[in-house]
From TrEMBL:
Alphabetic keyword roster: Thiamine pyrophosphate
Regions annotated as coiled coil: none
Protein name stated in the entry: Thiamine pyrophosphate-binding protein
Record flagged with keyword Protease: no
PANTHER family xrefs: ACETOLACTATE SYNTHASE CATALYTIC SUBUNIT, MITOCHONDRIAL, THIAMINE PYROPHOSPHATE ENZYMES
One GO MF term attached to the UniProt entry: acetolactate synthase activity
Organism superkingdom: Bacteria
Domain Thiamine pyrophosphate enzyme TPP-binding: 382-528
Source organism per UniProt: Micromonospora craniellae
Length: 539
């Protein structure tokens, strides 16, 4: 047995059945062995950065550890942005990276991969010797799950081909125990209960990762007379509750924004409170902020808070409920507010007007709200265009059905994350929103989508520009033409790469396109030519 075969055995023993990647000299025999001997599904991307994003999307959608592989040198270098996104999102992910021979510093693809991996992924695990390969794989997978976050498992090309010395049979994979929920300090519980008891207008704000604690947080809200809200990443967590304000942040809807402005206490459960969640301080200007988190380093790291509680969200909410007598706040939880929330129309008051050859993006999103299936995975890429679906479309955060990989602000994420999500959850159609500038950074992944054949509806909101830059340049007196581009027939490009596509320029063509593509059974692209002058101020 050679080292690459031992690595393949160990990877499969850790429950891996799907790998995303790009072949090269340093990983092609490993991939071939995974496919031919173990039946692993290999999803071949057209770009290493996209391959890691696909593994990230797969992990976020399934809750499993994502796995990708790239070759040495430029293969790893190209994947840097995707690794940084995964690191900031704390996605469990192992990247099997080839490396040049340590004894050949003049190799054309040589560069020092360890500091690069530490600067991007944050964790680097080398395969030390032929005899330690299996153990090194186990170290990488354990680190990815427990830290959590991406890990670069580094395999020099010459070591991968060495014979493995005799050793006992491969042990069963070690699965680390799930950590016990962290119980809060009783003094912190009493202090938080006192704050809730004496507040006049409290709000409980939940972030991504609190889905298991949703019932406990909802119970605490009912007991304390608080309103409920979520971050964008947890949108829909409390849907159906009469006092669910929806998303709190720069993309809050008007009623939510008006209500939050009056809050005097906001208790944040498991959310990375930052400038976007607080809308640069404008969202709840007069509130005392208390953060509840299992990570002490996360409390107040990106936005100042008054106090912190170290503890599991569910355990903390339940503990506070146990010591808090029910509080009635008819002035805050009023029937009028409940009626307003129930009857709120995201599109009310918008001056929507399409023009010849260009549909108002809000008109198109309104049709999406009417026509898209309720049970879906929604992916929203990065850019000005992302404001429209995030602000106006309802999406459920339960069951890992909403992905907005905005952690690093990197464009070009929508399509590869959608492919990974579709591979991970083939039972659920994927609707991905992407911009023209973003798509053109990774156009080759349309070919990947066509080959995978998954039910992904890619909605391309095309304003023939980098819309965010246009809106920032003009007020400073800089010519925005620097960020504008000629119109291209991207529907034709998609069809050339094997993806059926339709062009949308008005409401009639939008409805006609949806008639043809729904229900979603395979890849499709809607090239939506939108008005470039419609501005989403918060995106």
């Amino acid at each position: 047995m050679r080292v690459f075969e031992a690595i393949a055995d160990a990877v499969v023993a850790h429950g891996v059945d799907t790998v995303f990647g790009l072949l090269g000299d340093a990983n092609m025999y490993l991939v071939a062995d995974l496919v031919e001997r173990h039946g692993v599904r290999f999803v071949a991307a057209r770009n290493e950065n996209a391959a890691v994003m696909m593994a990230d999307g797969y992990a976020r959608t399934t809750g499993r550890c994502g796995v990708a592989t790239v070759t040495q040198g430029p293969g790893l270098a190209v994947a840097g942005a995707a690794l940084t996104i995964a690191r900031q999102a704390r996605t469990p992910l192992v990247l099997l990276a080839g490396d040049t021979p340590p004894g050949d510093p003049l190799h054309v693809q040589h560069f020092d991969q360890q500091p690069y991996a530490l600067a991007t992924a944050g964790t680097f695990v080398p395969v030390h010797t032929a005899g330690t390969a299996t153990r090194d794989v186990a170290v990488a997978f354990r680190a990815a799950r427990e830290l959590p976050g991406p890990v670069v498992l580094n395999v020099p090309i010459d070591l991968a081909d060495e014979p493995v010395p005799p050793h006992p049979p491969l042990p069963a994979p070690m699965v680390p125990r799930a950590p016990r929920p962290l119980n809060p300090d009783p003094a912190d519980v009493d202090a938080l209960a006192h704050r809730l008891r004496t507040a006049h207008r409290p709000v409980l704000l939940a972030g991504r990762g609190t889905e298991p604690a949703a019932a406990a947080i909802r119970d605490l809200a009912d007991r304390s007379g608080a309103l409920l809200a979520t971050t964008l990443m947890a949108a829909g967590l409390f849907r159906g509750h009469p006092y669910d304000l929806g998303v709190a942040g720069g993309l809050s809807r008007p009623l939510t924004r008006r209500t939050l402005a009056g809050a005097d206490l906001v208790v944040i459960f498991g959310a990375g409170l930052n400038r976007w969640t607080a809308d640069h301080g404008a969202l709840f200007p007069d509130a005392v902020l208390v953060a509840v988190d299992v990570d002490p380093a996360a409390i107040g790291a990106r936005w100042p808070v008054t106090a912190g509680v170290l503890g599991d969200a569910g355990q903390t909410a339940a503990a506070v409920s146990a010591v808090l007598a029910p509080v009635d706040r008819p002035h805050w939880r009023s029937p009028a507010l409940a009626a307003d929330l129930a009857g709120a129309d995201a599109f009310a008051g918008l001056d929507i007007e399409s023009r010849p050859g260009r549909i108002d993006p809000r008109a198109f999103i309104r049709i999406c709200a009417e026509r898209l299936p309720r049970e879906r995975t929604t992916v929203v890429g990065v850019g000005h265009f992302g404001g429209w679906p995030n602000l106006l479309l309802d999406s459920a955060a339960t069951d890992r059905s909403f992905l907005a990989p905005w952690e690093f602000g990197s464009i070009g994420v929508g399509l590869p994350f959608a492919v990974g999500a579709a591979v991970g959850r083939p039972d659920r159609p994927v609707v991905a929103f992407e911009g023209d500038g973003s798509l053109l950074t990774g156009l080759g992944e349309l070919d990947t989508l066509a080959r995978v054949g998954a039910p992904v509806l890619l909605v391309l909101l095309d304003d023939a520009a980098y819309g965010a830059e246009v809106r920032k340049l003009a007020p400073r007196g800089v010519d925005p033409e620097l960020a504008r581009f000629p119109e291209r027939d991207l529907a034709a490009v998609a069809r050339a790469l094997g993806v059926p596509a339709w062009t949308v320029t008005d409401e009639a063509s939008a409805r006609a396109a949806f008639d043809e593509v729904l229900p979603s059974t395979g890849p499709a692209l809607l090239h939506v030519r939108i008005r470039p002058d419609v501005v989403q101020e918060r995106f």
